Amino acid sequence: MGDLGFDSLKEQVKFRAGMDTSIEKIGSSSTNYYGVLVNHAYRQICEHDRLFGINRKFYIPELETSATATTTDGTAYVSTPSGVLVVRSVYDTTNNVKLTQIPWKVYISYTDRTNTSAEGDATEWCRSGARIYLHPTPQTTGDTMTIYYKKIVDNLSGTDTTIISSAWDEPIILLATYKGMTWQRDFEKAKLVKEELIDHLSGLVTIYENEYADRDMQFGPDSSYLPLR
């Protein structure tokens, strides 16, 4: 988790913004917009896989998690866990089988998906909204499906720290500062902050790629040969 609490992150952004008090309270609103900026930055880093055209995906291991769901005989789906940003994979823990992901258009092309006489142990999956559809339609009640996914983070408040590494505290501060400056049309200062932010992001993404490369093996050029932008 991060080292700095939400209140400390707001103070850091305020300091980077030259101790500007104008956005702490706007009009009749009691909302401290430094807090809005911090949460916008935190969620953007956690829920996007690229920023500012950097030609690398963000892999943040603390956002990867799993949950289980159980099948019901004759029901073609299990519920998507709450807080899912993207489902990575589905594993049938009961039968020790990794299911193959298929596109939605492939799933709905199966004429046997509603045929109760064509049920069996699921071998394929696809997500549609709050449901993960399985094919064939499960024939057993109680089979356990382990769903691996990237999760959505909650907004911070009070003394909350981020759930991601403290290495991301500085990029969150810089991105929040950048957003505040662009919102107020101070583009010259925003440009300088953006340059510093890109430098931080480029270094972090490269470090995390060392782990990501092993968990997502594929043929292709090493990322070190790709331009950052």
Give the secondary structure arrangement, pairings included.
Blueprint: H1 6-16, H2 33-47, E1 64-70, E2 77-79, E3 84-92, E4 97-98, E5 100-101, H3 104-107, E6 124-128, E7 131-135, E8 144-151, H4 169-183, H5 187-215
Parallel strand pairs: 5-6
Antiparallel strand pairs: 1-8, 2-7, 3-4, 3-8, 6-7
How does this model look, in words?
- The chain is α+β, with helices and mostly antiparallel strands and 229 residues long.
- The chain folds into two domains: 6-60 and 164-225, no CATH class; 64-151, no CATH class.
- 32% of the residues lie in helices and 18% in strands.
- The chain contains five helices and eight strands.
- It has helices at residues 6-16, 33-47, 104-107, 169-183, 187-215; strands spanning 64-70, 77-79, 84-92, 97-98, 100-101, 124-128, 131-135, 144-151.
- A four-stranded antiparallel sheet has the order 1-8-3-4, with no helix packed on it. Strands 2-7-6-5 form a four-stranded mixed sheet, with no helix packed on it.
- Helix 3 links the parallel strand 5 and strand 6.
- Helix 1 (6-16) packs across helix 2.
- The longest helix is centred in the last third of the chain and has 29 residues, at 187-215.
- The chain is elongated.
- The two termini are 29 Å apart.
